[in-house]
Amino acid sequence: PSNPTGACYSGAEVIDLFTSIKRLVLHKIKNPKEAGEFVVKLAEYSKKNGFLGLQNKENEIEKDSILQKGVKLIVDGAAIEEIEQVIAQDIQSKVERNKRSAAILRKAAEIAPAMGLIGTLIGLVQMLTELDNPANIGPFMAIALLTTLYGALLAFMVLTPLATKVERNSEEELLLNKIYLISIICIGKQESPRKVERMVNTILPPSQRIKIFKEE
Hints:
Low-confidence stretches: none
Largest sheet: none
Order of helices and strands: HHHHHHH
Radius of gyration: 25 Å
Structural class: mainly alpha
């Protein structure tokens, strides 16, 4: 983002922007259906082997995910109420950071054409000062035109699509984290894997609902 954008937000918020872009755009978000199937199997494993047995599954859990954090808290013996509170707060914090990152990108997209226009005015001023030297008019005119072009391209082909991508992937991440939260609570309460499946299906879209266990 340009300097005027940085003036609208704190340095920490701008740094968070790049973290959000790295997490939401560059890294592939796990498919919600696959995640649902995984947590049901994880619940089944926990039911058979106990909470400590979950340590054997840590290498299969997505690194730095809400699920990994929740499983570690369960293994450490934290109360389920505390786990739910910590995880829910973590999810909310991520949602707020993602919204702020998208807002920064959209603000940068608003400012970019104006910055391009400023470049155009500077180029026109330089061109007018060289009216007695026709050889220099062409380069300054090119600068005047190109800065507007670059500002528009940056706004409408880079920043705005990137903001939309961050918002969309943030929604997908939230859905995934809701699946993880509800599964962590169920596992922590030692609920049956069938119940975990039912609870996960209340979150998943109809087309992605899982069916691991046969109906009784």
